[in-house]
Amino acid sequence: MTDQTHSSPTDAASTDGQRSDTTSNRDHTETALERRSYMQLLATVGVATPLLGASSGAATAQATSDEWESAADERIETHRTGDLEVVVEDDSGEPVADADVAVEMDEHAFRFGVALDAPTLLEADETDPYREHTRELFNTVVFGDHHKWRFFEDNPQTADDATAWALEHDLDVRGHTCLWGNVNAWSIPPDVVEAMGIDWPEGGADDPDYDPEYVRERTLDHIEDLIEHYGDDIMEWEIVNEVLHETALIAAVEEGPDEELDPTAAATAPVLAEWYDHAQTVADREGVGIAVNDYNTLEGDYADTQEAYHEQIQFLLEEGIDLDGIGFQCHFDAAETLEPEAVYSILDEFAEYDVGLRITEFDTFQELQDEEWESDEAKGEFLSQFLKTTYSHPAVEQFVLWGLWDGDHWGDNFDGHEADAPLFYEDWEPKPGYDAYTDLVFDQWWTDESGTTDSSGRYETQAFLGTHEVSVTVNETTVEETISVTESDGTTEVVVTVSDESEDISVGGYEPQDTTGDGLANDITGDGQTTHDDVAAFFEHIDADAIQENPQLFDFAETGDIGFSDALALLRSV
Q1: pLDDT tier, 22 (very low <50, low <70, confident <90, very high otherwise)
Q2: Taking the model in full, what pTM does it have?
């Protein structure tokens, strides 16, 4: 996103529901199997239109070839799936052949997330689409405003209640953000703004008194207080958001009031290392991760910004900071898209740091350079292309949409734009982006396989990394297991024991047995072998209830009915 200047709300504390006016508002009740059923019910099957490959000059230019997509699909198979082997045994440990096996995905290991507005979430009930779609479509959430410094200090209960809801519904929570230097976005408490030497009466900072040590102490204390407050309920914190673009906090400590720093100076400021070092100490104690985050790092032609981002990351690593995540905001206007190959190349460069990569704030609502998106379909096609490209990179671990619904999206607070979220119109009708997203996440990248075990009792398939429900059925007895496929290399093996829970059956005083392991009671007399005596006993009692009411045991001819053909089939087996 290009650098912009924004106006502020008229009253920072007017309502809980107020969203900040900012460059960064870009910044188990149901099981995941129910999520899958829900998606099958609601989603349009597939994305029928060909994927587009946008360029910095034309957002909807047709890709020159399908090579990028076939390459991405190959990488996805390599890095996002693993081999799964289901071994079926009976109570004695013997393999069971021809057992029916079904493998249904429960949850992705990859973090698919969305930004939420905490007050909107808390005002909704469980049947509200805002909550329902969040539960069904995502496994990770982040709150656009209410973990930010001033919002949190003014009303921690809102942040706490929203976080609690997410955790109750088995959603991981990202922390956005400990510090952010945008004064006009209401992200910094007024006492700190005054100590920064800034006069900001509309935000309650009308008595500036420059005190860099006070700023330093308050920032360090807040980092510790916020991370400790949530402990490991927050999986990862962005410690300082938009270091390269919102430099006021750094400048207040390092330079003086109202001073601006160029990106390189901000990226290598001593206080930045101090903040991250302190954050790492606290985060390690609480068992959570720490990350960086900025924009124009994976959009358009911003080589200078990307170079400064490299300098920031290199600086922190050289200072001994153990980063867990590198965030790319990814707010794409129509003139700032990139071809898949360019996106992948940039990701490759940052992957060299051996730090997990995150797509943190994706949307496509902006038209900043007199170039409009061709249509909502074009936006959906770009979402599909960009999501597939980034998901195919092995270093990318998260993909977060910055909002899902036009009824609550930050676009209408940004430079006169209208709300334009990626997935839903204001009346909750799905956008083309919804079809693109669900087609990939819940169809193309969702394990739904079935088959039967071989003679060794084994069933093999390929599964996307994540948790799965494995269902095994033998003679109308079904056993279910939940397993996790976590490695793309090697094979995940699960052993399922299926007990014969059927009642003993008597045919003419005999107790028929299955001596071949195929589920059929071939030994009618129960003497351990199949002979003509078994055929005679079967034919004599073929109309008995014990046989007719248990066709799964006596359907030797595989017709579904028990009759003379089954006697002939049994005879042929002698």
Answers
A1: very low
A2: 0.80
